[in-house]
Amino acid sequence: MAAAGMIPSTAVMVYGPRNEVEIETVLELLRLSYDFACGKLGRVDSVVL
User: Fold this and answer.
1) What is the pTM for the complete model shown?
2) Which UniProt keywords apply (predicted)?
């Protein structure tokens, strides 16, 4: 989709969570993404999931 120009090249697609563990994983991805967008994180390669 990014190659076709339908979404930005920085977009990330995540499958919908199926259980509580996956919900927490998706929420953590969202938190990290938000913090990065707000400039709250340092270097991207310093983030460990």
Assistant:
1) 0.64
2) Plasmid
